[in-house]
Fold this sequence. Notes:
Elements: H1 2-12, H2 14-23, H3 31-45, H4 52-60, H5 65-88, H6 95-108, H7 112-119
Helix pairs in contact: 1-2, 1-6, 3-4, 3-5
Amino acid sequence: MGSHGAVASYALGEDVWHAVRADWRTAPVSPQLRATLGFIEKQTLTPDELTHADAEAVYAAGVSKQALRDAAQVSAMFNMIVRLADSFGWDVPEWDRLLGRAPAMLEGGYSIVAMRQRMLPGAPA
């Protein structure tokens, strides 16, 4: 699952993360997270079928527009990076190393500026 799995494991707790990986539909998560995961799954597996009605369903579950936008952007970046990593044969760090980075990723977010500052400490924002 890579770094995003490590962040999810850190944020949700390992037991909940394993339940989400097994089947997010039955995992013990909030209705808001469940709706967001459904949106992201469709974004990943059948993006041509994703419509405004899908976003409206997530908003109706209590997710803000900004939260869904953030989740969709992270998912889109993750999808792109995984496809590039697979095609170029990039190595993925070991799980323990990814878990070590999880708190900073969760706290700092996934913005390009935050990622650049983690990779290049002292770099201008």
